[in-house]
Amino acid sequence: MIKISGLRCGIDGGEDIVRIAAKSLNMSVSDIADTRILRRSLDCRRKGDIHYALTLGVTVKGDEKRALRLSKNAKAEIFEPPIGGISEYLASAGLGGKSGSAVIVGSGPAGLMCALTLAKSGVKPTVIERGDRVQERVKIVSDFFAGADLDEECNVQFGEGGAGTFSDGKLNSGVGGEYALLALRELASHGGGHELLYESKPHIGTDILPRVVSLIRDEIISLGGEFIYNTKVDGIRAEGGKLRSVILKGRHGGVIDCDTAVFAVGHSARDTYEMLLSEGVLMCPKPFAIGLRIEHRQSDIDMAQYGRARGGLPAADYKLSADIDGRGCYTFCMCPGGEVVAAASERLGCVVNGMSNSRRDGVNANSAVLASVTPRDFGDKVMDGVEFQRRYERAAYELSCGYKPPVQRLEDFKAHRAGGVGDVSPSCRKGYVLSDLNECLPVYVSRSIVKAIDVFAKKINVFNHADSMLSGVETRTSAPLRILRDDDGHSSIRGIMPCGEGAGYAGGITSAAADGIRIAVKILSAL
Predict the structure, then answer these.
(1) pLDDT band at 11; cut points 50, 70, 90
(2) Strand pairing of 226-228 and 288-297?
(3) Is the Cβ–Cβ distance between 355 and 367 less than 8 Å?
(4) Beta sheet of 406-409, edge-to-edge order
(5) Do 220 and 125 touch, CB atoms closer than 8 A?
(6) DSSP code for 337
(7) Rounded CA gap, 149 and 165, in Å?
(8) HEC states along 261-288?
(9) CA gap 374, 380 in Å, rounded
(10) Contact 392, 441 (CB under 8 A)
(11) Mean pLDDT score of the chain
(12) pLDDT digits over 294-312, tens only?
């Protein structure tokens, strides 16, 4: 295959990529056997010349090296396409045809990809999930949004699919490598769509993710895996520093004897952290970030980014950062055309997050605006970060007298008054309560956010609009601690293998899924 970079096509999708490829290689369309998009990104640096930047993979009829030489295209090269999915990777690495069993604690991206990799190799995984199957979970969460009480075991944070199921479903990640590519290929082949493999900012959407999750689960079961729902690992038994069994509590109580348990529990499994810590598993606190959600009208973000109404363009996004008085501030999990969601998992705590459907066609855009915090802010004991999160979640709960997020116009936030609603209406389906959000954040975080928003407005001119709507609090940005593991993936108790975002080794769907594959490969390599 010949890879050609530096190509462009119009935003209307009317141009034929085969003709683009033929022209760039100085050959006839009839000389091309196949053309595929390897990479596509929207280039809107010049508002009057918005276009797609393309990298194409082209198979030609005849000698590719000769065709490449005759093309005299400096941006073309011979390219070996990457291998397929996990099955092909395992075969090439000599990791197929294994046997045995393993316990996977948690069925978020890390747990599912770990279980899928093991199952494809011949190992039988047993997946323990404290929440419900994704279809039932969607109903439980929808009922919560509509006014039902919080289910502490199955909610926006807990349940099959993990916290990412109720998000924008972003799959772009700063973590590359073969495991991330394998994760994308599996997500694409299980209903995510082929475009995940070439879009520069791939996303699935919260309306599509449940189907993707269920298809991955069904394949794991078809390969001999087992899922146990509404059950959590409440304890472990170890002898001589080695895992011997896990203790279950919930719908399916009991004990499972095992020498390998992958803990892919997610960043909100505070009771699991406490249990592992009490059993002697070594952990350390780590930096994370807290802040608020900010909402603008999506049409205003489109105008700021494109210089005109969107038309046939995708809903515009952004990613912004600034150093404010030595503290990192940034936007996180931006949801074009999305909504703010009530994301509590503990009683007496109010938390927000954001999510978008695949079409990103909502009225508002939202993202977190965060300030980084470190052990210098919250303490150097393992659980100090958790207690720091909990303190401000409870303050937000007290402000709103429940799980409806407290909200405030930006101008009112700056003036420390509850105020009212302006041009931007809060999108949270759970509802909202007008409050002063300064009362549920540390003073230094509030001040940093105000300064950061004004800096961000230099790039997105509507960012600090007086009617921009804030909601709080956003505390579950990443794990506040790391469960230590060695080069073989084991914790201080051998056989317990921390994995994914909740263990402190990932940040988002793709990196968590990649870490799940990584840990599975370590297990298989030791068999």
Answers:
(1) confident
(2) unpaired
(3) no
(4) 321-324, 327-335, 364-373, 288-297, 469-474, 406-409, 433-434
(5) yes
(6) T
(7) 20
(8) EEECCCCCCHHHHHHHHHCCCCEEECCE
(9) 9
(10) yes
(11) 96
(12) 999 999 999 999 999 998 8
Q: What is the DSSP letter of 97?
A: S
- Cβ contacts of residue 83 below 8 Å, gap of 6+? 89, 92
Count other C-beta atoms under 10 Å from residue 347's C-beta: 11
Contacts 24+ apart (CB under 8 A), 99-104: 99/123, 99/527, 100/124, 100/527, 101/125, 101/126, 101/258, 102/126, 102/258, 102/260, 102/261, 102/262, 102/523, 103/128, 103/246, 103/256, 103/258, 103/260, 103/261, 103/262, 104/128, 104/261, 104/262, 104/264
The yes-or-no verdict on residue 174 having pLDDT over 70 is: no
Q: What is the pLDDT of residues 462-504, one digit of tens each?
A: 999 999 999 999 999 999 999 999 999 999 999 999 999 999 9
**389-393, long-range: CB < 8 A, 24+ apart:** 389/290, 389/475, 389/476, 389/480, 390/270, 390/346, 390/349, 392/290, 392/440, 392/441, 392/442, 392/473, 392/475, 393/344, 393/346, 393/349, 393/350, 393/351, 393/473, 393/475
- Nearest of 230, 212, 208, 197 to residue 116 by alpha carbon: 212
Q: In 61-112, at which residue ranges do the beta strands (DSSP E only) sit?
A: 76-78, 101-105
- Phi, psi of 184, rounded to the nearest 5 degrees: -60, -40
Q: How many CA atoms lie less than 13 Å away from 320 in the CB half-sphere?
A: 25
Specify the amino acid at residue 379: G
Question: Angle at the Cα of 336 (from 395 to 439), degrees rounded to 5?
Answer: 15
Residues 430, 401 contacting (CB under 8 angstroms): no
Indicate the pTM of the whole model.
Answer: 0.96
pLDDT in tens, 194-251: 999 999 999 999 999 999 999 999 999 999 999 999 999 999 999 999 999 999 999 9
Task: Give the span between the Cα atoms of 154 and 168, in whole angstroms.
Answer: 19
13 pLDDT higher than 70? no
